[in-house]
Design a protein that fits this description.
12% strand, alpha+beta, two-stranded antiparallel sheet, 2 strands
Amino acid sequence: MSGIPPIDRILALDGKIFAMLSPAELEVFDFYRAQGRKFGVQANVVSDVDPQGHLDRTISRRNDEILRQTNSRVSVAVESGAQAEWAKRQRAGSAG
């Protein structure tokens, strides 16, 4: 993946079962889980096994495997105005 994935791609993952994400979806999820705050996006995994999200905060392969084995779902929250800001950045980038 090159560049910043559009916010609509991470929004499309909201509510999906974490274990069922395709490699391309997982790449988008990983990007926003690691860097989403810069863009007003919070992406994480919600699980009955770890309702407080402690496993997810460390972003390790081992924790991801635990979350895949449970009925974990992707959760995405976008701050108001984040989509408009993203679109503005894209327009500025394509104008140059």
